[in-house]
Write a structure and sequence with these properties.
The chain has eleven helices and nine strands. It starts with 6 loop residues before the first helix and ends in a 10-residue tail after the last strand. It has two domains: 68 residues, Helicase, Ruva Protein, domain 3 (Orthogonal Bundle); 190 residues, Vaccinia Virus protein VP39 (Rossmann fold). It is an alpha/beta fold. It is elongated and about 70 Å long. It has a seven-stranded mixed sheet, with helices on both faces. It has a two-stranded antiparallel sheet with strand order 1-2. Helix 7 links the parallel strand 3 and strand 4.
C-alpha cells in the first residue's frame, strides 16, 4: 500500500479541493466525511489517519468530496444530522436540523406538557426531541409533505418515541382537533428578497417550501397564530421559531390574538430566535 492511500494524505488533499471550491470549514468537512466512510468515531480519527486506506474506500471518499465540492450539504452525504445530542436521519426532502432551533427546545422544556403538536415537523427533530425529554408526553407531527412525515416517523422509531407520536398530512392546523397544552412551529420565515443571500447548500439542496413563503416571511405566522388559539388549553403555550428581525411583528400577532406573556428569546448568538406566548388561564368568577 503506497503513501497515496493513507488517511492523512487523503484528508489533506480533500481539504485543498474543498477550499478551492469555496466550501466553509473545509478541513472539518473533509474529516467528517472521512470518518463517515471509515466508520470511525470522529474522536478516534486522529489515531486512524496514518493508517492505510483501501482503494475502494478511497474511491468512495473521493466521490463524496466531489459532491461536497458542488456544495451538497454534509448531512445529505452522510444521511444524518446531530440535534440536541441525538442523530436524526435527513434527506433533501426535509430541512436540516439547525443548532439555533435548540433554543426552541430549551424554551419548550421550561414548563411541562402533556399533549403537544409540532407544525411543519419535517425531520421530526423538534417533536422527537421533546417527546424524548418528556417521557409521558404525547405528540403530533404535522407536515404537508408525506415524504417528510415518513422521515419523521422513522426518527421517532429510532429514538424510541413512536408509541407516543402520531403524524398527519395537513396545512398547519387545518382539520386538526385539540386541545393541546403546547403548540410549536418552525415555519418558513425567509422573505423572498432574502433568498438570494443564502448559501448554495441551502438554496440548491434544501426544500424551498420549508424555507420561504415567497412573500414577506410572515405569512405562515398569521395562519398559525389564528388557528392555534382555539386549540390551546387554558395556560397552553404557543412557541415559534422566527427570523432575527421578526420578533416585534410576530409578538404583535400573538398579542392581538389574545395571548399573554408574549416573550422574545434570543439564541446563543444573541439574535432574536423564538417567540413564546400563553393562552390566559381560567379566572374564577367573583362572588358578591
Amino acid at each position: 500500500m503506497t503513501d497515496e492511500f493513507t488517511g492523512s494524505v487523503l484528508v489533506l488533499n480533500a481539504t485543498r479541493l474543498l477550499k478551492s471550491a469555496g466550501v466553509p470549514d473545509a478541513a472539518r468537512d473533509a474529516r467528517r466525511l472521512f470518518s463517515h466512510v471509515m466508520g470511525v468515531d470522529s474522536s478516534r480519527l486522529t489515531l486512524t489517519l496514518p493508517e492505510p486506506v483501501t482503494a475502494e474506500d478511497a474511491g468512495v471518499f473521493a466521490a463524496l468530496i466531489a459532491r461536497r465540492q458542488n456544495r451538497e450539504p454534509v448531512s445529505h452525504l452522510t444521511g444524518n444530522r446531530a440535534f440536541y445530542g441525538r442523530d436524526f436521519a435527513v434527506t433533501p426532502a426535509v430541512l436540516d436540523p439547525r443548532p439555533e432551533t435548540e433554543t426552541l427546545i430549551e424554551v419548550a422544556l421550561r414548563s411541562h406538557f402533556t399533549k403537544m403538536i409540532d407544525l411543519g415537523t419535517g425531520s421530526g427533530c423538534i417533536l422527537v426531541t421533546l417527546l424524548a425529554e418528556v417521557p409521558r408526553g404525547l405528540g403530533v407531527g404535522v407536515d404537508l409533505s408525506p415524504t417528510a412525515l415518513a422521515i419523521a416517523a422513522h426518527n421517532a422509531q429510532t429514538h424510541g418515541v413512536a408509541d407516543r407520536a402520531s403524524f398527519h398530512c395537513a396545512d398547519w392546523l387545518d382539520g386538526i382537533s385539540g386541545p393541546f397544552d403546547l403548540i410549536v412551529a418552525n415555519p418558513p420565515y425567509i422573505a423572498l428578497d432574502e433568498m438570494a443571500a443564502l448559501s448554495p447548500e441551502v438554496v440548491q439542496f434544501e426544500p424551498q417550501m420549508a424555507l420561504t413563503d415567497y412573500a414577506d416571511g410572515l405569512t405562515h405566522y398569521r395562519q398559525i397564530v389564528t388557528q392555534a388559539v382555539p386549540l390551546l388549553l387554558p395556560d397552553g403555550r404557543l412557541i415559534v421559531e422566527i427570523g432575527p428581525t421578526q420578533g416585534e411583528a410576530v409578538s404583535q400577532m400573538m398579542t392581538q390574538a389574545g395571548l399573554c406573556h408574549v416573550t422574545v428569546i434570543s439564541d446563543l448568538d444573541g439574535r432574536d430566535r423564538v417567540v413564546s406566548a400563553q393562552l390566559p388561564g381560567f379566572t374564577p368568577e367573583k362572588r358578591g
